[in-house]
Amino acid sequence: MSDALEGQLVEVDQPGELIRSFDGGRSRINPAEAYIRLLESDQSKITMTSYLKHVIWIAAHVSGKKLLDPKGSPIKKKDVAKYVTLDMMFWPNLTKLRINEVLQYLATKQKSKIATRQAYLAAMKGVMREAEELGYIDEKQLLSILKLSIKGRSKPKIRTLSLDEIIELFGSLANDAIGTRDTAIMAILLGGGLRRAEVAGLTMDQVMFHEQGFHVTGKGNKERTVYLNDNNWQKFMAYMNDVRGSEETILVTDKHDPDKQIEVPAPVFGRFWKNGDFDISKPLTPQAVYYILQRLTASIPQFNKLKPHDLRKTFATTLVNNGTPLTVVRDLLGHSSVKTTEIYVGVREQQLKDAARAINY
Predict the structure, then answer these.
(1) Which tens digits make up the pLDDT trace of 62-96?
(2) d(Cα 196, Cα 206) in Å, to the nearest integer?
(3) Within 13 A of 327's CA, how many CA atoms are on the CB side?
(4) 315: which residues sit within 8 A by CB, 6+ positions away?
(5) DSSP H helix total and E strand total for the chain
(6) Do residues 187 and 181 touch, judged by C-beta distance below 8 A?
(7) Where's the Tyr recombinase domain (predicted)?
(8) Fewest beta carbons within 10 Å, which of 10, 31, 335, 360?
C-alpha cells in the first residue's frame, strides 16, 4: 500500500487502520459529522470541525501517512481547513492509544496549552459517543476513552491595555472608510467586551439604537445585552452614518431551495474589496477581525501579538478595577460562572498576592 493518501483515502484491509476513507456500512453515517450536527451554535460547529480536521492531520502524521491536496502535494498544517475532510479518518478505529498519541503530539510538537488539549479531547470524545450510539464501537471501548482526562489548567496570560495605549491604538486608525469601520470594531471590542466572533456575527436586528447597545448571542447560545458609553457609541455611529448606511435586511439563497431567495437581517459589519468597494452582503469573519487588529498593530512595537481577546480582557479588568461587582462583569462577558471571570481578570491571583504581602512578620 502506498504511504500517500489523496482525497477520498484508499481502502485498506489491515484491521484497525485509522487513516482511510470512512465507510459506515449500511447506515453510512459518519460519527464525526453526526457529532457536529448535535452542536447548538454555529461557532461551536466551526470550532469543533477545525479541531477534528487537525486530529486527522496529526493522526496521519504520527502514523507516517501523507494526506495529499488535489495537486498531489502533502497537505501542510496551514492548509488543513481547506483540504482535510471529516471522512478521511475511519473514526471507529480511534482507540484510547491513538487519542493519547494525538494529545502527546499537541503537547510536545505544537506546545498546545492544557485548555487547547482539553478541547481536542472533548471533540474526540464527542465523536466516539456518536460512534457507540451508531453501533460502530462497543460500550467497553467508549468507556475506556471517556476515562481519559488532562489534568491541570493553563495559567492565562493577561495582556491589558493602559489608557494611553488605548488612545494610541485609536490614533493609529486611518481617517478613511476602512479606518472608520475598524474604529467601530475596536470601540465594541474595548467598550463592550465582545468576542471577535460576536462582533463579526452582529446583525442589524441586534442593534439597540435608543439604548446604545446590542443584544448578543454568545457561546452555547447564551444571550446577553451589552451597552457602550457615549464616546464608543459615537465611534460606532460614525461608521453607521458615514460608511455603512441603514440597510436592515439582505437577500440570501435559501439553503433548502437554491432557486429561492429569502430576506434576513443584514450584517452590521461588511467587508471592503481590493478595489475599495464596500459590500454589506458579505459579513466579516471572526478571522477577519483578528487580521484587522494584526494589521493595525504591526508597526507598533508595544502592541506586538495583541489579540482581540486582549481587548475583551482590558474591558473586564477595567470594570473590576473600577469596583464593578464580579457578578455584573460575569454577565457582561457572558460567562456562566464567576470563577471563570475571576481567572479571566486575574482577581484570584491578585488576592493571593495581597494576602501574602499583608503578613507583617
Answers:
(1) 988 889 888 889 999 999 999 999 999 999 999 99
(2) 16
(3) 0
(4) 189, 190, 191, 192, 193, 332
(5) 15, 9
(6) no
(7) 156-357
(8) 360
Alpha helices, DSSP H, located in the chain: 31-38, 42-62, 80-83, 96-108, 114-133, 139-146, 163-171, 177-192, 196-200, 230-239, 286-297, 308-321, 326-333, 338-345, 347-357
Nearest to 189 by CA among 220, 158, 226, 151: 226
Phi, psi at 156, each rounded to 5°: -65, 140
Under a CB-based contact definition with an 8 Å cutoff, are residues 330 and 339 in contact?
A: no
One-letter amino acid at 173 equals L
Amino acid at 90: F
Domains of the chain: 4-146 (no CATH), 163-308 (1.10.443.10)
The C-alpha cell at 141 is: 471501548
Residue 7, amino acid: G
* pLDDT above 90 as % of the chain: 52
| Contacting residues for 308 by C-beta, under 8 A, at least 6 apart | 189, 195, 196, 199, 289, 290, 293
Return d(Cα 267, Cα 249) in angstroms, integer. Answer: 8
Name the strands in the sheet holding 213-217, side by side, starting at the edge strand that comes first in the sequence.
207-208, 213-217, 223-227
> Which pLDDT score, from 0 to 100, does residue 5 have?
36
- As annotated, the active-site residues are 195, 219, 309, 312, 335, 344
CA distances from 288 to 126, 211, 219 (A): 29, 28, 19
Which residues on adjacent β-strands are paired with residue 214? 207, 226
CA atoms within 13 A on the CB side of 259: 0
DSSP 299: T
C-alpha 94/C-alpha 98 separation (Å) is 6
CB–CB of 274/267 below 8 Å?
no
Whole-number Å distance between alpha carbons of 85 and 361:
62
pLDDT digits (tens, 9 = 90+) for 255-272: 788 889 999 999 999 999
